[in-house]
Write a structure and sequence with these properties.
The complex is a heterodimer. By secondary structure, chain A is α+β, with helices and mostly antiparallel strands. Helices cover 43% and strands 31% of the residues of chain A. Chain A has one domain (2-116): Beta-Lactamase. Chain A has helices at residues 2-13, 42-63, 101-116, and strands at residues 18-25, 31-36, 68-75, 78-84, 89-95. In chain A, strands 2-1-5-4-3 form a five-stranded antiparallel sheet, with helices on both faces. Chain B folds into two domains: 2-168, Alpha Horseshoe (Serine Threonine Protein Phosphatase 5, Tetratricopeptide repeat); 199-320, Dynein light chain 2a, cytoplasmic (Beta-Lactamase, 2-Layer Sandwich). The relative contact order of chain B is 0.09. Classes of the chains: A alpha+beta, B alpha+beta. At the A-B interface, helix 2, strand 3 and strand 4 of A face helix 11, helix 12, strand 3 and strand 4 of B.
């Protein structure tokens, strides 16, 4: 299981601009598997990814928008992407501002599906 | 509403032991006079220390003030007096959900549902907290005398949407309801429905000119309280407060995390959901803007609209602090 997840993260890391990626337990915000550059604070990233996923999912449910599948946070010096594949596991990616979000999203959704099998 | 305040205040002045304090507290709270609402609730509870509805009203005031620990204590006190108090159970469920404690929220809402299995509103809230699709409306409507009570403001129609915040805000009892005997659990009772405007109708028209100004754009503060705009579900129900509560604290968390991972200031969060996209943007002082757009609206366009709305909200907020 762990090898497969790491391989999926490795594929993600090949997308230009990706600085790190990780599988995160949705419930407690702890990292399940990660592939991060040394200077990336994985713990903070994981905790926030889970919290943000939970909160926007709550807001989406409240407004009838349905289940949230993908979240991106844009910031001055980068983006944080979160794919919500199941209720249990998220895939989070930290990337440069110029990353091809569409490509990263594709790989992230694949990685999220992998976690389900 | 000002007339309500006057008449209820007059009634309390005539009879300080009147239970009208609950209605007055609620009207003041909805009007945003939370300190006065708090005073009224505390005064009423001073005279009726075993009044579960009073603690329920007090808890809602504390919630609006962001005093979640106090709100929890008040609801727990209500449950100590009346263990099946629906308003308190729903309120606590809401509180746990807002704090991210999904497990406790589910337990509490299941307790509320066990106390009133016919309450579709709780059933829907429970489904939402569990992340399940909203249940199909329950069976046959109850006789009119047993209809789920409607809030005095007509604030939310509870049968249709997972309106957890509304479930927490059960109606106040009639002012002339008899005081229960000591030790008797006080249960929620339906209240008359005066023709007060809904919260969406009295919120400032900050986003006039924007498409969906009162149905798809919401300005909320850091505590998850609605400041302006509004969100409506597909059936027209006002879901602003529920959505705002769900998003409480997101702005601060985003700011801190962006700092930890050296992303700089965050500018937008886009959530792609099955039927719509949500765009969040930071506004000064921890406030946040939320825009909802159909999936057919390109994300880039939704972000641009959000930025325009954010600027509008920022100006409005600056005007409020002058």
């Amino acid at each position: 299981m762990s090898d497969r997840l790491l391989r999926a993260l490795d594929r993600l890391s090949r997308v230009r601009g990706v600085r790190g990626s990780m599988y995160v337990a949705a419930e407690d915000g702890l990292a399940v598997a990660q592939l991060l550059m040394e200077d990336v604070n994985g713990r903070a990233l994981a905790a926030f990814a889970a919290s943000m996923a939970r909160k926007v999912s709550g807001a989406a449910a409240a407004t009838g928008a349905g289940r949230v599948r993908f979240v991106q946070m844009q910031a001055a010096q980068g983006v944080l992407l979160v794919a919500i594949g199941s209720r249990d596991v998220l895939v989070a990616v930290l990337a440069d501002p110029g990353v091809n979000v569409g490509l990263a999203r594709l790989e992230m959704m694949r990685a999220a599906e992998l976690a389900l099998t | 509403m000002a007339e309500d305040i006057r008449s209820l205040s007059a009634e309390l002045a005539r009879d300080p032991s009147s239970l009208a304090y609950i209605q007055l507290c609620e009207v003041l709270r909805r009007k945003g006079h939370v300190q006065e609402a708090l005073n009224v609730a505390l005064h009423g509870l001073g005279r009726h220390p075993d009044h579960a509805n009073g603690y329920d009203a007090l808890a809602r005031v504390h919630t609006d003030r962001g005093e979640l620990a106090e709100a929890r204590a008040a609801w727990e006190r209500a449950l100590a007096i009346a263990p099946e108090h629906i308003g308190a159970l729903k309120g606590l469920g809401f509180l746990f959900w807002r704090q991210g404690d999904v497990r406790k929220a589910i337990d509490t809402l299941e307790h509320a549902l066990a106390a009133d299995p016919a309450d579709d509103q709780t059933r829907r809230a429970l489904a939402m907290v569990k992340g399940e699709p909203p249940p199909v409306a329950a069976a046959p409507a109850r006789p009119s005398s047993e209809e789920p009570p409607v809030r005095p403001s007509g604030r939310l129609t509870l049968e249709q949407v997972p309106q957890l915040r509304a479930t927490a805000e059960r109606p106040t009892p009639p002012a002339d309801a008899p005081e229960p005997a000591p030790g008797t659990p006080v249960v929620p009772a339906p209240a008359p429905a005066p023709s007060a405007p809904s919260p969406a109708e009295v919120r400032p028209a900050v986003f006039a000119g924007f498409e969906g100004a009162t149905a798809d754009i919401l300005l909320l503060d850091a505590r998850g309280l609605v400041l302006a705009g509004g969100l409506r579900a597909s059936d027209g129900a006002d879901v602003s407060e529920l959505a705002a509560a769900a998003l409480a604290g997101v702005s601060g968390e985003a700011e801190r995390t962006a700092d930890y991972v050296r992303l700089g200031a965050w500018t937008a969060i886009v959530a792609e959901a099955e039927r719509a996209n949500l765009v969040l943007a930071p506004v000064e002082g921890g406030a946040m803007l939320m825009l909802r757009r159909e999936k057919s609206t390109p994300v880039g366009l939704a972000i641009r609209i959000t930025e325009r709305a954010r600027v509008t909200a920022q100006r409005w907020l600056e005007g409020q602090t002058l």
